[in-house]
Amino acid sequence: xxxxxxxxxxxxxxxxxxxxxxxxxxxxxxxxxxxxxxxxxxxxxxxxxxxxxxxxxxxxxxxxxxxxxxxxxxxxxxxxxxxxxxxxxxxxxxxxxxxxxxxxxxxxxxxxxxxxxxxxxxxxxxxxxxxxxxxxxxxxxxxxxxxxxxxxxxxxxxxxxxxxxxxxxxxxxxxxxxxxxxxxxxxxxxxxxxxxxxxxxxxxxxxxxxxxxxxxxxxxxxxxxxxxxxxxxxxxxxxxxxxxxxxxxxxxxxxxxxxxxxxxxxxxxxxxxxxxxxxxxxxxxxxxxxxxxxxxxxxxxxxxxxxxx
Length: 309
Known about the structure:
The protein is α+β, with helices and mostly antiparallel strands. Helices cover 29% and strands 23% of the residues.
């Protein structure tokens, strides 16, 4: 069935805003120009590229490359150069995190559910996994058991890949490259809070980006943080939207690939700035995986970041 997809174009004082949905997130492209035909061209090209990446690497799409690999039954699957490069990046992240970040750990979603299903009376999670459940699914996690080269990949039967930890940020970077090829006018691409800019605004001022407070769903108005961005990219990782509560303990959605359990004592939210969005995104995630040592990890990387506990 063909997916229903659309763009909403809105005229603003200093240009245009283009809104669409992709990767289970609200997406927006801000373009500082009065040239409407150019805006439409950029909007169509960016959205088409984001949807292409979504269709290619979504684990929910039975026709995607990701699904083809996951349902291969242990047989070799042919891949292209783009997929090979993403797998290489996943390998680098695995090594940098000492195995804490592992794109085969997505199979753990079959026992962990962070979809907001809470008991209305207690406010706690209805379906909390048992130690045995987690242990059983953990047996299907292990990046070192994946064999791949430039032409193909072989995934052991029962294992799965999940590009969700890098796909959206990769789409941001691809979108920025396409925008730069079409115009010198300032452009901001925001895919669900992970974003990048082509440069400063037309008035030579910074883009003002609001970072959602991790307690945005709690009672009372929480103040968003405003970050100024002149160049590069920004990404945020945390448990503002995806978490569960059991016995009064809050569990974030970022899982330790070695134990199968959520990371303890991590900041509620981490925002990082880097030249590319895929770099900013993975650094924010790797920091969360460090738990109580998250800030120390980011300080060692010598990048700009904000952490909220």
